[in-house]
Amino acid sequence: MAKAGGQEVEKGVFEKASVRDARVNGKKVLVRADFNVPLDHGIVKDDARIVAALPTIELLRDNGAMVVLASHLGRPGGEHDPDLSMAPVAARLAELLGTYVAVAPGVVGDDVDAVVANLDSGEVLLLENTRFEKGETKNDESLAEDFAGLADIYVNDAFGAAHRAHASTEGVAHHIPAYAGLLLEREVRELTSVLADPGRPLVVVLGGAKVSDKIGVIDRFLELADQVLIGGAMCFSFFRAQGHETGNSLVEDEGIELAKGVLERAEKADCELLLPTDLVLGKSFSADAEPVELDGIDVPDGMMGLDVGPKTAAAYAKTIAAAGTVFWNGPMGAFELEPFAAGTRAVAEAVAETSAVTVVGGGDSGAALAQFGLADKVSWLSTGGGASLELMEGKQLPGVEALLDAEDANG
Ligand code: ADP
Ligand code: MG
User: What is the pTM assigned to this prediction?
Assistant: First the structure.
């Protein structure tokens, strides 16, 4: 047991009922998956989230369930938007499963009920985009009941949406027996194992755009980690809090006050907070901008800090190499732009090479790992951005909380 923001957390504990323990033979099972994937002209561009959902779907099919899948895709705002139909997901899923995957004629309603009624054991149906329904993001009670009416059992495998209390992620779980999918369970176990009794030193690398997105995680790890390494645009709020010039670098107004608070708390914490000591600057956020190294952190007028410098990257890589456990969230710079990708690449390579347990959360950190071909070189790459951060902050995820407790589940 270890201290985590005042709570006791046991290593990798998961106290919710698992789909492995549900009796599903001959039953209709509604599975909320996270198929919110990037599309390119009607084709799935990155199928990682679909692949991650396969174990639960295969388990259910093998055990004779009729599988009804649901997910949101993009932000259709409660309207039917043909560009955000689940059809491309169904096509990719069918290839991966090696079986036909039907797309329902809507999210809920009589036409959908009719298709569900005709399913046989082992067959797979994908409902239309749950956010075509206005009630989805409002966690509307009658929509939740409609979802529940489609099946005998509910399984939530959508870890990436588990921090949202929506009708298909939370509301529905109150109406039929609700279990955790294999991915959701694994995500919670892998992420919480960083908080509880981690191999030391625990090194936490935080970057990305905004301090306000990451403040909860920074504060929690000041209590838990041995070193917190800061990079990304976020560091400029810290530099401003320390009185440095940041030129045109991205600084969040609210971030400066937040950073001041972090710097004060870090003084008293048993944790070392490291900030960049050198930077790579550019005139604009553009792949054509010429990268200029700065041995220092005071950014001149007209320039913006777009990456950490080579000294910082080397120091962070050395700390990561000596770690027992690494948690990484948020790129070190504007890694999408090749001239400013080196800092993030150095951290990604160090995370891939270290013998430490390595857990990576956050959409863009995952995208960076994939860009460098290192996605399979970490212990766990979370499919959840916001959800993984909220879990690490110590918040309860509504999509997890609503599931049956393991001790109350009787199959
Ligand atoms: P994650 O999704 O991994 O949590 P964030 O969304 O917080 O990460 O941040 C990623 C974004 O931050 C990327 O688009 C990246 O370009 C941007 N970023 C990082 N460093 C800088 C910087 N110095 N200046 C401008 N943008 C930056
Ligand atoms: Mg992001």
Answer: 0.92
